[in-house]
Design goal:
The protein is mainly alpha-helical and 471 residues long. Helices cover 87% and strands 0% of the residues. Helix 10 packs antiparallel against helix 15 and helix 12 runs antiparallel to helix 17. The longest helix is centred in the middle third of the chain and has 37 residues. The mean pLDDT is 87.
Length: 471
């Protein structure tokens, strides 16, 4: 199987394994809102958000380093034992240290729900370790099975604890933690993790290179969250909750792209690392081919969504929220650059240059915040959307410049000019009420998508024909 075929297969498997998580939260929303009070659900959401923020700090993002170093170790062996042992040691010490900090916060400052935060971080850290063990070993099918089983278990437990036992917010956290711990135990049994842990392998010599990889990922993760949250905080502070509601609805459509692309990115970071370990020359050829494909495909998706957004808004959006249509094209273009930035992130993962990821994300976060605060009084929500676009453009620019020091990816300037012309044309034609302009923009976007992705379309068509012929 070629590496591209493997990447496509793994992306599909990861999507199957993770799509359930999105479906769980969507399907259970009516249950939550009908039984839980707004205070209970708000507390639950706060605990999850704070836990997500504390997780990379407590664990030093060692599960990310573990994934990358397992790929280089060539699967199981003495090196694998060292990686697993030192990862679990750091995670264990970090989680215990977090427990003491949260205990002190509860005792001396009276901060509520510290015990719940600690339990959730502990369970989530184990789940992340188990997932990255399977990814590092290349067992993507089992990763998908474990993720799917965990999501189904969480769905069943949520219904029981909320609707039957009426445990409220505590029940929601219980079901999430139990399902994640059981998923970890399932992976532990699968890889016989007790045979891989040897205390004699714990050493600074083994930990140091892993920490060098993982530590820059902490500010990278935190800055990424700041970029995502800063728009909402600034809008709420300067313009109020109503404006934030309009902006949030606008952002839901780019989030659709981000959700699907994340499945590819998870598979891509593993694929990029695996290919790089086979030699730089072959890796560069693979990266160049995939870079062109992803760039054309994602740009096509974005311009098609911009062109078709008047129709989508009429179907899904009502009332004052329709005002969000004015900002959607900016957020969608920002998402295109975000996808490119994540593609480069996969390459830096392969190169083990996580410091570049951290610095570039930090600069993008500062740009986002400064531009947003500086302009929001003058141009309103355009400042929030525009600062997001500018931050993602800066992120791509920095990562692409730094990438030249390690890997040569050629730029097709003719293709870039065509993209700019198509984007400007589709955006200029964008209209909520003029159906002639809407139709023309869809034709232009569709024509570009067909031409730019003709190789993919022909390949899918030929594959479909072969399957029909076999039947």
């Amino acid at each position: 199987m070629s590496e591209k075929s493997r990447l496509i297969k793994n992306t599909g498997l990861i999507a199957i394994g993770n799509f359930g998580a999105k479906m769980v939260s969507f399907l259970l929303l009516p249950l939550y809102t009908s039984i839980l009070s707004t205070e209970e659900y708000g507390t639950y959401d706060f605990i999850v958000a704070i836990s997500a923020f504390l997780l990379p700090i407590a664990t030093l993002s060692m599960y990310e380093a573990m994934f990358r170093f397992i790929i280089d170790s060539g699967n199981k062996g003495e090196e694998f034992k060292k990686i697993i042992t030192n990862t679990l040691a750091i995670v264990f010490v970090g989680v215990i240290a977090l427990g003491f900090v949260l205990c002190g916060a509860d005792i001396f400052f009276g901060i509520k729900n510290c015990i719940y935060i600690w339990i959730y971080v502990s369970a989530n850290s184990l789940y992340n370790v188990s997932n990255n063990i399977l990814r590092g070993l290349g067992k993507i099918k089992k990763y998908a099975i474990v993720s799917s089983a965990k999501n189904i278990m969480q769905l069943v437990l949520n219904v029981l604890v909320v609707a039957v036992f009426r445990w409220g917010m505590t029940g929601l956290l219980f079901s999430m933690c139990v399902s994640e711990v059981i998923a970890f135990l399932a992976v532990a049994i699968e890889v016989k993790i007790w045979k891989e842990i040897r205390l004699k392998y714990i050493s600074l010599h083994a930990i140091e290179p892993m920490l060098k990889y993982s530590l820059p990922l902490i500010p990278n993760a935190l800055c990424a969250q700041i970029i995502n949250m800063s728009d909402r905080l600034v809008i709420s502070g300067f313009m109020g909750a109503s404006a934030n509601g309009i902006y949030s609805v606008s952002y839901k459509f780019p989030n659709m792209v981000e959700t699907v692309y994340h499945y590819f990115y998870t598979a891509w970071s593993e694929s990029a690392s695996r290919v790089f370990s086979r030699g730089k020359e072959k890796a560069e050829e693979y990266y160049q081919s995939l870079h062109t494909t992803i760039s054309n495909l994602m740009f096509s998706v974005i311009v098609l969504m911009i062109a078709g957004m008047p129709i989508m808004f009429r179907i899904f959006v009502r009332g004052d929220y329709v005002k969000g249509f004015d900002y959607i094209w900016i957020l969608l273009m920002a998402m295109y650059f975000d996808c490119l930035a994540k593609f480069y992130s996969g390459l830096f993962t392969a190169l083990k240059k996580t410091d570049v990821m951290a610095v570039s994300t930090l600069i993008a976060a500062v740009v986002n915040l400064v531009v947003n605060i500086g302009l929001i009084k003058f141009i309103g929500l355009y400042a929030a959307a525009g600062s997001t676009l500018l931050a993602d453009v800066v992120l791509v620019f920095i990562r692409k410049i730094k990438l030249k020091d390690y890997i040569q990816l050629k730029s097709d300037y003719k293709s870039i000019v065509v993209k700019i012309i198509v984007a400007v044309t589709v955006i200029m034609l964008s209209s909520y009420d003029n159906w002639f302009r809407i139709g023309l923009s869809i034709i232009i976007a569709g024509g570009y998508a067909a031409i730019a992705n003709r190789e993919i379309i022909i390949s899918v068509y030929n594959s479909f024909r072969r399957k029909l012929a076999k039947k």
